[in-house]
Design brief:
Layout (H helix, E strand, L loop, with lengths): L2 E4 L13 H11 L9 E4 L4 H12 L2 E4 L3 E5 L2 E9 L5 E3 L1 H7 L3 H22 L12 E5 L7 H12 L4 E10 H7 L5 E8 L17 H8 L4
Parallel strand pairs: 1-9, 2-3, 2-7, 7-8, 8-9
Antiparallel strand pairs: 4-5, 5-6
Helix pairs in contact: 1-2
Length: about 220
C-alpha cells in the first residue's frame, strides 16, 4: 500500500484551483522533497502537460510525456471501459465491461482505435523519440485529475514495467474511487483535492478548457 498525501482542507470542495497552472504550482508544494532530486516528471497529455510543466519548473526536474489513453465506450467519448499504455498493453474495467455487455468485436475495435490514437500522439508530442530510461529512477506521473483512475493505472503499470525505482502519482484532484484503485499500485499518491461521487475533473477548476495540440506542443518545446 502506497502513502497518500492530501490537503484535507480541500477535501470534497469544488472549484479550488484557478486553472491548471495554479494547480501545478500548488501540487509542487506537496512534492517539495523531490526538489533537484533527479526524479523525472512524466505528463499525461493533454491536460496533464500544463500541470506537470509547473511541477517540473518549481522542483527543478526534467519533464517528458507518457501517452496513455482511455478506451472509449462506443458512442460516448467522455467515458471509458479501460486504458491502453504507450506499449499497447491494455487494462480493463471488468466490472463496467460486464454491465456494458459489449461484444468481443466491439471491444477489440475500440482497443485498436485507441492504439492508433496513441501512435499518432506519440508522433505529435514525442516526435517518436525513444522513451527515456526509467530503471531505478524516481518517476512522478502527473495528470490534471483522475475520474475512474484506469488511465493512470495503466501509466503506472507501464512505468513499473520499465523498472522505475519509485513510482509517484501526483494530481490536483481525484475521485475517492480512483484513489482506492491506485493506492496499492504506487509508492506515493499526492492529491490535493479528493472528492466523492458524482465526480468531474473540470469541477475542481475555475477556468477549464480542453487543450488543443498547439497548446500542448508549445509547452513541450520548452523541454525538448
Amino acid at each position: 500500500m502506497g502513502r497518500l498525501v492530501e490537503n484535507t482542507d480541500l477535501r470534497m470542495k469544488p472549484y479550488v484551483f484557478a486553472d491548471r497552472a495554479d494547480a501545478g504550482r500548488l501540487l509542487a508544494g506537496s512534492l517539495g522533497d523531490y526538489t533537484s532530486s533527479g526524479a523525472l516528471v512524466l505528463a499525461i497529455p493533454a491536460g496533464g502537460v500544463p500541470v506537470a510543466h509547473e511541477v517540473a519548473i518549481n522542483l527543478k526536474l526534467a519533464m517528458d510525456v507518457i501517452v496513455v489513453r482511455k478506451v472509449q465506450i462506443p458512442g460516448n467519448t467522455e467515458a471509458g471501459f479501460g486504458a491502453v499504455g504507450p506499449d499497447g498493453e491494455v487494462i480493463f474495467n471488468n466490472a463496467l465491461l460486464k454491465r456494458l455487455r459489449l461484444s468481443d468485436e466491439e471491444i477489440n475495435r475500440q482497443v485498436e482505435q485507441t492504439r492508433r490514437v496513441i501512435e499518432t500522439r506519440n508522433k505529435t508530442y514525442r516526435q517518436s523519440k525513444t522513451f527515456p530510461d526509467l530503471k531505478e529512477k524516481a518517476v512522478i506521473i502527473v495528470d490534471d485529475g483522475l475520474a475512474s483512475g484506469y488511465t493512470m493505472s495503466e501509466a503506472v503499470r507501464f512505468v513499473r514495467r520499465k523498472k522505475a525505482g519509485k513510482t509517484i502519482v501526483a494530481v490536483p484532484t481525484a475521485s475517492e474511487s480512483a484513489i482506492n484503485l491506485l493506492m496499492s499500485e504506487v509508492d506515493e499518491l499526492h492529491c490535493l483535492n479528493i472528492r466523492g461521487y458524482p465526480f468531474a475533473v473540470a469541477e475542481a477548476y475555475m477556468e477549464w478548457h480542453d487543450l488543443d495540440d498547439g497548446e500542448v506542443i508549445s509547452i513541450l518545446r520548452t523541454w525538448q
